[in-house]
Amino acid sequence: MADTSNSSSQSTGFTDKLKSLLSWSWTYIWAIWFAMVLVLIYVLRSPLKLQETLATASVFLSTLTPKFYVALTGTSSLISGLILIFEWWYFRKYGTSFIEQVSVSHLRPLLGGVENSSSAGLFSSVNGDAEPRPSVSECKVWRNPLNLFRGSEYSRYTWVTGKEPLTYYDMNLSAQDHQTLFTCDTQQLRPEDAVMQKAWRERNPQARIKAAYQAIELNSDCATAYVLLAEEEATTITEAERLFKQALRSAGKDTNVLVYIKRRLAMCARKLGRVREAVKMMRDLMKEFPLLGMLNIHENLLEALLEMQAYADVQAVLAKYDDISLPKSATICYTSALLKARAVSDKFSPEAASRRGLSTAEMNAVEAIHRAVEFNPHVPKYLLEMKSLILPPEHILKRGDSEAVAYAFFHLQHWKRVEGALNLLHCTWEGTFRMIPYPLEKGHLFYPYPGCTETADRELLPSFHEVSVYPKKELPFFILFTAGLCSFTAMLALLTHQFPELMGVFAKAFFSTFFAPLSFIMDKMESFMPSSFWHQLTRI
């Protein structure tokens, strides 16, 4: 067995060496190939009659009129302009260059290029453990803890504006969530459960509502059918609350259904102004199901406590959940910053602070703001109303624009209620970016900002919303190159049309200067090498 393992390891090592050798050879083989082509052309210059061909081409080019060059340069300008427009559209939509993407995806493997996997060790988390930079597949999408009701809130927006606030991708994720939460064991599948399984998969809202009524006809105690009607058919929060209470009476002992219904009932109470009742329901829910922390019910509780201005209770919740070992969110980081800003914001003055320096409390508040901005840099523009808000999506990407929209939609009023808090945020939030290394190879207080947020946010947020991008991407090389090529050829076409004789003289001077080094090299090679290389080889 030992000999077998040794032989297999040796064969694996030989294979790896062979692959590395081939990759190395592909890196330099193009230069060898190019040199061989040049030598072959030189050797076969007489049989191929290259000099006569070049002379004929020169005569032909000299007979061309300026109109030909105008058409040539104009066509080049048009083609490069079309490529520029396509590249710009592709960059705006997908955040990358199409030519660059094709080159990396298809040409790089042929040339032996490999991804640099050693850079993963450069990134570290807050506690010092090695943490690789998140890839697109690792950018997890979370259910929005404070997501609105489709029938009574999202649909109203559509009726008024004619715009769809939810994307198909977002709604499809919600359908998958509902199937996961509300699907019973297949061995105990009842007829109404089969109907509801199909209902969650329906794309048409009216088809879903119709299926829910069919499930109620089969069983008047079908809790998930009432949940669907409360979410999508109810046109007011009061009506949704009535349907959720009906669902609660029919829920039985299904934990997932119970937690979902009780949470939505608490949110109904919060929206209807019964904030203390909502807080009690949320606290009871967290005590009854303490292991369901991934549902982020504490974020609902924090928002309700802020509405009550119960800041001591907010601090108590933060002390439990703002822990280094727990996942962070914009709600956690910005609520912590708000509480620290509240202690100093009413007396804060940037002029006075610049004269005397920051006090300890002010420094703590500024550091908390910097921490929050580093976690999600998109939030301040919404809190400071530099960007317009839209209805939050049903799913969010942490540290992305979707999370920023969801946080600001519910918490902007709490920041406005604290005197001077937004002024302190306005004076200090941009200072965060001077503390974060560029090009973001290492995080400061958190792991490096993921590069996949823009793509995911474009899927989650409606098309009429301008997605906030961080860090701002520089224009790809190929966009700059095609822009320069388009401008240059257009200028040549214009000058050739206006000054044909002058441009002809300039073109001849340019080409004669351009080919002068090549002519010099050819003359030197003629002096060193025999006139008939093949004749000398036959004599040898």
What does this protein look like?
This protein has 540 residues and is an all-alpha fold. It has 24 helices and two strands. Strands 1-2 form a two-stranded antiparallel ribbon. α7 runs antiparallel to α8 (205-218). The protein is elongated and about 100 Å long.
How is the secondary structure organized here?
Elements: H1 2-43, H2 50-63, H3 66-94, H4 98-110, E1 141-143, H5 150-161, H6 168-182, H7 191-201, H8 205-218, H9 223-232, H10 237-250, H11 255-271, H12 275-288, H13 297-307, H14 311-321, H15 330-342, H16 350-356, H17 360-375, H18 379-383, E2 395-397, H19 401-417, H20 421-428, H21 453-460, H22 477-498, H23 500-528, H24 533-539
Helix pairs in contact: 3-22, 7-8, 8-9, 9-10, 10-11, 11-12, 12-13, 13-14, 14-15, 15-17, 22-23
Main location: membrane
Transmembrane segments: 21-44, 68-91, 475-496, 502-522
Subcellular location: Membrane
